[in-house]
Amino acid sequence: MQTLEDVLTDNKKLSEDLTRATADNAKLSTELADARTKLDQTSTTAKLHGTKLDELSSALKASDERSKKLETDLAALSSKETNVDKMIAAELSKRGIAPLAVAVHAPRVELSANDPQTLFHEFAMVRATNDGMAVARFMRLNAEKIKALGKMDYLAAMNAGPTGGTGKGTGTGAGGGGGGGEGVSPLGAAGGWTNTIPAALQRQVFMDKVMRAFKYRTLPLKAFCIRFNNVPLEGTDKLDVPYYPLSTNASVDFAVATGYVFTGSYAVDFREVTVNKRKYAPMTWSSQDLRRQPMLNPEQIAQMIGEKLAQDVMTDIFSVITAANYGAPPTTLTGIAASALNWSLTMDMKNACDVAMWPAEPRTLVLDSTYANYLWRDNTAATAYSYGEPGGVANGIRDRIAGFEIVSVPVLPNNGATEKLCGFAAYPTAAIIAFSPIRPTPEVEQLLTSYQVTTDEDSGLTLEYRRGADTKGDYTFQTIECNYGYNYGQKEALIRITTP
């Protein structure tokens, strides 16, 4: 049997439940009212759209009616022009006046194809009749085609008559006599057509040569960088770049009682990269330099400045390889002199990579060229080149030894007296680099004579090319530019080697 205190407690609980229910009902009522308001707004918007659609349909119908009336008027006008031509011909015949010479070619009055060459040809034939009304009729009937082809000004210039040239043969037409070869030339000018090579193709050859020089110097980027090419940036110079860390998940033993158990996971990590590096190499030459200096070779200069730009970019990117980003190297790889680098130390590096659980491929050993040269002259290493892995010392640039692809870098930066960097082993997730060109504004690009973005598919490098001129100073200027940013990636994916 409940006591009075129990009854009061139950009543209090029921009162609290009633209060909550009342609040929930009020909330539901508010949401219902909001939904009705939104529904009314949607209905009003739909009605407005329906009204606009009706207005648009009416406008289209009226436009069709006007088009039909215009076609009828044009047909009537053409009929009147035909009658006028017949009346003029009859009057001339009555008075015994001979008509003007008729052109060899009877042209079509209205063209059926939007072809510039056909347009020019037919217009020349009409002009050859010396019939002003025919010329005016041709211009009127084909006005839309002429406008679409953007040739109105050119045709007007033709109608005014170009200056004829000289040469063997005769040329007739409003433009004067020209040496167009023996016979009658309807255009009346010699050498009226010219063959040109687009400037963009000439620039492309130039940029290809720059890219080759740049690519040679930046070869190591493929060894330790995840590269993102031509990245569009919106709002800021920063982007979050995903990368795939080395897998550390342990394998699972299958048990009949439990079957497959999915407890492992694999994460895609990311690193923020700020694209705030904008390096460029300028070139200039004056008109006098180009016309008076036969040994001036802009392409050769472009290769040289492209290689120097590459070296500067690489030196900047290598600065990310520090102890703070990748930790201290193993003791066996610390304080190594160039003359001490041999097969044994290479195996120490391989062991360090094995302990770090790196995959067997791809592994790269990037060395200052002095260290690489000592390694290649080691007898054991030479034997490995000859009888072990394929490749050998084929070109002195990229070879294989102990599972590493060897990359020699001329003058690898040591990154300061405290870092003492002379080489490193790397897996491709060690660093991240992104290229993002800065296209000129429409106003700036209009002032340039050329702007191009060239991308090398193998290395991922992106270069920009700008060309312009200063008419007051009488010189041409060009720039080769690289907009990029970088950051360290996975710390465990790079092992440093330091000097004494």
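Above is the first protein from milestone M3; the second protein from the same milestone is given next.
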Amino acid sequence: MQDPTYANPSLLQFETNTVCNGQCTFCQYPNMKKRSPAKWSDLIELMYWWVPEVKAVVPFGMQEPFLEKRLTAILSNIKQFNMKAFTTVYTNMTVYDEDVMTKIIKQQNLDALAISFYGTNKRTYNKLQPGFDFVQVQKNIKAFMKLRKRLGWRKPQVNMHLIVTPETLATGEGFRRKWKKVVDEVGLVHFDSWAGTQPYSLEFEKRLWGEPLKDRPPCHRLWTSMNVRCDGTLIPCCLDSDIMVDLGNVFSDRTVYNGSKMSVCLSFSMRVDFIGKQSLTFFSMVVERKMMVRISYGSIYNLYHRPCQVTQIDHLAGFWIFIGIAIGNNGLAIS
């Protein structure tokens, strides 16, 4: 039986910079502290050691990938280290350079392109993604699809995402039908509260998705994904925009993955009092003690309702502080 405190990543997600042209109201990017871009030598070493070991790679974090001038080189190196690794980036599709897009398509190193276009009409789009040109972005998407067809390729697969909010719900099905004729797939996604920093309606989520799960199994991504910020910090969840949970730096020490902090992290996530209903009591306790952890009912709802999708950072940030107390009481050190 495999050691439950030992993770074996099948997905590597790494951030290359924190440059984005967006001020999206549903995203934590406008409020987060920006980091310096990763050095090329650090990225190469990261890819050298980890890409051969995984099945999928997302060279993307809190950033707009088409503002990363090294994007095509990064994708090329990923495929050199592991031709079978499935590559994905997420974009707002506001940046459209036909030369770059042609290279992306012709080189065939990008397997999937996920487009965040969060508005079924101009009013909603401007509310959720202010500052972007509703008409021009649609033109960019259609131009990319026409370019891919003209060049004779089926990759990258293009998927459009729409966040389901009270504003987009009424016209979401029309949005899906319209864009399904243009791109390969259209998906509806849950709203994330980003560790309680975003306004969230629990009642709306309940009406839309149903009641939260009574019991929350541990998130499998803690064992199967490796998330690295552009400064080399290893985090347990890609939604940890401000590195609330620091598991060590893989640029300086690649052994931090499956190191002591990671093992404690995995072990704690399997505790009965965390997996079951008592988790809610635990969250309340964290909030009441004001341990600099922002928790919202919305995040708890997401955590309970979506055990097999993106894990919220709320419980990770909260339990890491809690772990510090628990282990400290046992006379052990984790820092």
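Note on the second protein: The longest helix spans residues 134-151.
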